Amino acid sequence: MSTIRVERTGPDSAGRMAQVHSLCFQPFWSEGEIAAMMHMPTTVGLLAWCGDAIVGMALYRVAADEAELLTIGVVPAHRGQGAGAQILACGEAEAAARGAARLFLEVSTLNSSAKSLYLRTGYSQIGQRRAYYPDGSDALVLEKALSGDGQRSGSQPITPFSE
């Protein structure tokens, strides 16, 4: 596997992020929806690259001492190669650096690979939302405590805005 590089990005990358999201999810978020979120000062956008190709993305929201993973996706051709874990680790480090002590997320009960990643990386289930997703599946609500120093063991530094 080639090296994955994760970079923090701004609203001008909403189109790229929407393209990745459309390869990962149905229904997917549009460029306009992503741009609107990215214009909020509490939102953090990440793009993952393998060489010149974008292989994944994530959006986080950080407010006060809490963060929420809004979405994370890895394009199908690059799944199972560690990109998701690296994006997740970088997002956790960024959230902690912005003062978040805890990170929350929802994951479909049908998404076994994502559930496995989250449980493997220290998330715990704290709730469940019935029929949360458009396909009728339930969402597990997960939480993870973040370190207070802005760093997480094994995380990679995030490159400043690239665009």
From TrEMBL:
Presence of keyword Nucleotide-binding: no
Pfam family, one: Acetyltransf_1
GO cellular component: ribosome
Keywords per UniProt: Acyltransferase, Ribonucleoprotein, Ribosomal protein, Transferase
Domain N-acetyltransferase: 4-147
Keyword Acyltransferase assigned: yes
Phylogenetic classification of the source organism: Bacteria, Pseudomonadati, Pseudomonadota, Alphaproteobacteria, Maricaulales
Signal peptide range in chain numbering: none
Protein known as: [SSU ribosomal protein S18P]-alanine acetyltransferase
Listed PROSITE patterns: GNAT
Gene Ontology molecular function terms on file: acyltransferase activity, transferring groups other than amino-acyl groups
Superkingdom: Bacteria
